[in-house]
Amino acid sequence: MFPQVHGVEKQDWTALKNSPENKNNLDLMLACCKAEIESSQSKHIFPTPDCFKRVASLLRKQKDYARELGIVELYWLLCDSVFEEVKRRDGLRAQLMAQHSALKAGFKKRYDKAQLLLQLKREDASLPQ
């Protein structure tokens, strides 16, 4: 799912992902997600949702609803992983719970819509032509 992007240093991701010519580059945005995953897992911090939202938007434009659901689920799993690790290490805090809930809620509407669109796409495909 994640392409290799050679020659891109970690500090370049912000500039790359925010440049207008790159915002529609799915491979680059997926590579940005991969870098965000690695950073989140190594530092035990919640991933920023920007790249994941951009990838989900690009997949929706391609009508690839199954992969759109997959990227949202991946983001949620990553948030859950960080939440559990920080909770284990530092104990449960209201701020941690609020941040975890807010990050996941930011994708809920998109996820529900993608599920509906995927179901409709499957129903259309099963109709006789």
Topology:
Blueprint: H1 13-18, H2 26-43, H3 50-61, H4 65-90, H5 94-126
3D structure, described in words:
74% of the residues lie in helices and 0% in strands. It is mainly α and 129 residues long. Helix 3 packs antiparallel against helix 4 (65-90). The radius of gyration is 16 Å and the shape is flat.
Helix segment count? Answer: 5
Q: Cα distance, first to last residue?
A: 32 Å
Helix and strand succession? HHHHH
What general outline do the C-alpha atoms trace?
flat
Low-confidence parts: 1-9
The domain count comes to 1
Compute the number of strand runs.
0
Largest sheet: none
Taking all Cα atoms into account, the compactness measure Rg is 16 Å
Relative helix content: over 70%
Report the sheet-strand fraction. under 5%
Give the class from helix and strand content and strand pairing: mainly alpha
Mean pLDDT: 88
